[in-house]
Amino acid sequence: MRNDREAMEFDVVVVGAGPSGLSAAIRLKQQAQKNNRELSVCVLEKGSEVGAHILSGAVIETRVLDELIPDWKAKGAPLETMATKDKVLFLTEKSHIRMPTPPQMHNKGNYIVSLGRLCRWLGEQAEALGVEIYPGFAAAEVLYHEDGSVKGVATGDMGIAKDGEQTAQFQPGMELHAKQTIFAEGCRGSLTKTLFEKFDLRKDSEPQTYGIGIKELWEVPPAQHQQGLVIHTIGWPLSTDTYGGSFLYHLENNLVAIGFVVGLDYSNPWLSPYEEFQRYKTHPAIRPHLEGGRRISYGARSLAEGGFQSLPKLTFPGGVLIGDTAGFLNVPKIKGTHMAMQSGLVAADAIHQLLATEQSAGKEATQYPDSLKKTWMWNELYRVRNVRPSFRWGLWGGFAYSALDTALMGYAPWTLSHHEDHSQLKTKDQAHKIDYPKPDGKLTFDRLSSVYLSNTNHEENQRCHLQLKDAAVAIAINYTRYASPETRYCPAGVYEIVGEETGAPKLQINAQNCVHCKTCDIKDPTQNINWQVPEGGGGPNYPAM
Amino acid sequence: MKILVAVKRVVDFNVKVRVKADQSGVDLANVKMSMNPFDEIAIEEAVRLKEAGIATEVVVISAGPTQCQETLRTALAIGADRAILAETDAELQPLAVAKILKAVCEKEQPQLLIMGKQAIDDDSNQTGQMAAALLGWPQATFASKLTVANGEATVIREVDGGLETIALTLPAVVTTDLRLNEPRYATLPNIMKAKKKPLDVQPVAAMGIDVAPRLKTLKVTEPPKRSGGIKVADVAALVAKLKNEAKVI
Ligand SMILES: Cc1cc2nc3c(=O)[nH]c(=O)nc-3n(C[C@H](O)[C@H](O)[C@H](O)COP(=O)(O)OP(=O)(O)OC[C@H]3O[C@@H](n4cnc5c(N)ncnc54)[C@H](O)[C@@H]3O)c2cc1C
Ligand code: SF4
Q1: N or C: less crowded end of chain B, CB within 10 Å?
Q2: What is the mean pLDDT of residues A63-67?
Q3: Partners of B82 in the beta sheet?
Q4: Which domain holds residue A300?
Q5: Which residues of A263-281 are buried (b: 16+ CB within 10 A; e: fewer)?
Q6: Which residues form the pocket of ligand 1, taking CB atoms under 6 Å from any ligand atom?
Q7: What's the rounded mean pLDDT across residues A29-57?
Q8: What's the pTM value of the predicted model, to 2 decimals?
Q9: Percent over 90 (pLDDT), chain A
Q10: Least reliable range by pLDDT among A210-224, A346-360, B227-241
Q11: Are B187 and A158 an interchain contact pair (Cβ–Cβ within 8 Å)?
C-alpha cells in the first residue's frame, strides 16, 4: 500500500485506446445516455497520443462500426478506400503463382484503412460523448481490493533514474479506481499477463501463439498506384516449415501499406523476421509496387494467432479482457479489428447492466462471455480454429488440411492444439544459418534507419522497461545455446551482443529504440525477458499505421 | 505581479519530418504535435516565480487553430492559472504573433512576457524581439537565469562569448534558453484539474490585427543526404582522396 499517490474514482476505467477499448468506452456512454444515467469512463493510453502505438494492416470489416456509429460516413470517419481487387499469390524465389482467393480472404465491401487514424477518430467520438482519455499515461500496476477483486490501476511513477533513485523531476503515479476495469491492451498486454496468473485465467485454454507483423508505409509514384488493390502472399522467402506471409494494400493518396507476418513458433534461431521482410520486397512481383517511391514510416507489432482454443477466461472480479489481449483474431482472415470492437461492445453492455445493480464494485461481469457466445463472432472464431495449428505440418500440410477444413465448413469434430512459441526454438547447431542480402538503401534498409522512421523514443534516464529475470541467462543460455535470437527477432535492434571480440560477450539493451511489439516477451526461449510499460508517453509515434 | 507566457504548438521533437512531394512545405498530416520545448521552459519559470511568491498570476496564451487548446491545457497542467487562445486557421508568421501578443499585453497588463527563444519548427527566433519592439519594452533573450525583485528583472543571458548579466525594468520581455530550468512533468492529477481551469477563446479576426504573411515560401527541400564513409588503406590514399575528391587540401 502506498500513500503518496493521488486517487480518482470512476465507474469504468479502460486500459488502452485501441479499437476495442475505444469501442467499449463509446458504447458505455451511449448506453448511459439512452438510460439517462451518469457514468464516468476514463481511458488510459500509453502512447503519446491516441493512435501513436497502433499498428495494423489494415483491411477491416465495418459491421461493428456500422452498429456502433451508423452515421460514421457523415461524421468523417477516415475510411476512404474500399477494397476493390483481391489477389493471393504463392511466391517462389523468381516467380509467382496466382492462387484462388480462399473464401475468408474475399474483401469486397471491406475498407483499407490506417487503424491508427481510425482510432484517433474513435477517440474524438468518445471524447464528444464525455469519455475522458489520457494519452501519455500507461497503466503500470493492477490494484486490488482486500477481497482480491480488481480495484483499478495505477500509472507509473515518473522521474526514476536508471539506478532506481528518484530524480528532481520525480512525480508519483496516480491511482484510478473503478467499479469495473476493462483491459484492452492489445496483443500480449503487460497487465493482462499478471491477471492471467492472479486469476488463473488460462487454466482451461491452450497456450496462446503469436505472430510478429512488421510494416512499412510507402508513398509511391501515382502511375503505379492502384487504389483499392489488396495482395496477400505466402511462400518465399520463408521456408515451408515457417508460418507466415505478407500483405500489400494500396490506400488513398498514393500510399501503400506493406507488411510481413512471421509465426513466432518458428524454430530456426538464425531466422530474422526483419530480414525476411526486407528480402520479400525484392521479389519481382512485389518490387514494382514500391520502386521509385519513398518509405515514410516503419513499425512492428505482435498479433495473437491462437484463436478459439487459446481464449482465456474473459472475466474476473472487478474486470474483463477485450480485444487482442484476450486473443480475438481471425487468423486465416488476418483480421482482428472487427472482433476487438465487437468484444468491446458486448463487454460494455454487460458492464452497463452490472453497474445498474447495487454494489457492483468488484463483481464479475459474467454476462459478457455468455452474450458473446451468442454472437456471430464466437461462431466465426470456432469455425477457423483448426486452420492455424494445421500449419505445424508445414505449408503443404496446412494447405491440405485447410482444404479439408473448408469442405467441413470448420465443423470438424476435433480441435487441434498449440505449443508455446518460446519452446519451439532449435539450438544454433541444430539449425542452418541464413545468409541475408545486404540492404540497398532504396528498397531494403538496415534496422536502425528503419527504427528512425518509427519516431520512437524513451526518456533516457529511466529504469529499463525490458527486465531480465536473470541477467546471466542472456549469455549462459541465449547466447551459448541459441546464438542470441533476440538480436534477430527484435525489429528495432534493441538487443545487441557487445564485447564478443574480447571473449566476454555481453547483452546490451538499447531500450530507447523499443517499438512495443512485445516479441521479446513472447519468444525469449526461457521467458527471461519481461516487457513492462516505460515511463510516460515513451515508445513509437506512428503517424498513421 | 502578473506573468504572460506565450506557447506555440509545433511538430513533436520525436517526429522525423518529411517534405511534401510538391515541396510546398513539411507534411503535417497525422503528425504528432506538442508544445515547443523552449516554451515549456518559459511556463516552468513563470510557475516557479509564482510558487516563490513573486508572481501572483500566470496567464498563458497561444495563437493558432482550435487544436492549440491541447497545448494550452498542458501549460495549465504545469501550473498556469488561465489560458487565452487567439484563434485563427491562418498561417501566422513571427510578426503577426508579436502583434497579437502586443494586443493581449495591452489588455492584460502583465509585468513580464516570457516565451521560448525560438520554436523548433521554423527556428525563427524573432517573436520575442518583435513583441518587445512593438510594446516598447526592454528585452532579455536567451535567458539561462532569471531573478525578479523590486520591480526589476535580472537576467543571465547565454551569448557567444559566455554569459552576460543584464538588469531590466519591468514590464519586460524575456526569452528562454535551454539551461534556464528543467520543466516538471505534467502529472495526471494536474492534467485532470487543468480541464477545469478557464480557457478563453478569442478569434483573431475580431482583434483588428493585420496578420497577413509578409514572407513567401518559395520552396522547401530536404538537406542533402550524407553519403556513407569509406575506409582508406593508408595515409597516402587518404591524402590523395582529400586532395582529389574532397578537394579540401
Ligand atoms: C501487422 C498486423 C496486421 C494486421 N492486419 C489486420 C487487418 O488487415 N485487418 C484487421 O481487422 N486486423 C488486422 N490486424 C489485427 C488488429 O490490428 C488487432 O486485432 C486490433 O488492433 C486489436 O485491437 P485492440 O484494441 O485489442 O488492441 P490494439 O490495437 O493493440 O490497442 C491496444 C492499445 O492499448 C495500449 N496499451 C497497451 N497496454 C497499455 C497499458 N498498460 N497502459 C495504457 N495503454 C496500453 C496500446 O498502446 C494500444 O494503443 C493486424 C495486426 C497486425 C499486428
Ligand atoms: S525490445 Fe521487445 S518489444 Fe521492444 S521492439 Fe524489441 S522485440 Fe519488440
Answers
A1: C
A2: 97
A3: B59
A4: 81-112+210-304+423-531
A5: bbbbebbbbbbbbbbbbbb
A6: A 15-21, 44-47, 53-60, 115, 138-139, 184-187, 189-191, 213, 215, 259, 261, 301, 303, 323-325, 329, 334-338, 340, 533
A7: 97
A8: 0.94
A9: 86
A10: B227-241
A11: yes
Spatial neighbors of A412 by CB under 8 A, at least 6 apart, are A386, A404, A405
Domain B2-244 in CATH 3.40.50.620? The answer is: yes
Residue of A nearest to B28 (CA): A543
Shared domain for A242 and A341, answered yes or no, is: no
The verdict on ipTM greater than 0.95 is no
Give CA–CA dist B91/B162, Å, rounded.
Answer: 36
Residue A105 is predicted with a pLDDT of 77
pLDDT over 80 at A403, yes or no: no
Q: What are the C-alpha distances in Å from A158 to residues A166, A209, A535, B141?
A: 9, 33, 6, 31
The CA distance from B30 to the nearest CA of chain A, in Å, is 5
pLDDT tops 80 at residue A324: yes
Give yes or no for a contact between A303 and A315, defined as CB atoms under 8 angstroms apart.
no
Kindly state the cell numbers that stand for B70: 491541447
Can you give the pLDDT at residue A406?
75
Answer whether A140's CB lies under 8 Å from A156's CB: yes
Residues A16 and A139 in one domain: yes
Query: What gap in Å lies between CA A323 and CA A368, rounded to an integer?
Result: 13
DSSP state of A486: H
Measuring CA to CA, how many Å separate B201 from each of A10, B65, B82, B86? 30, 10, 11, 6
Task: Choose the catalytic residue: A297, A315, A337, A450.
Answer: A337
**What are the domain boundaries of chain B?**
2-244
Residue among A25, A55, A78, A7 nearest A516 (CA): A55
In a domain, A541, yes or no: no
pLDDT in tens, A148-185: 999 999 999 999 998 889 998 899 999 999 999 999 99
Among A169, A173, A541, the residue with its CB nearest the CB of B14 is A541
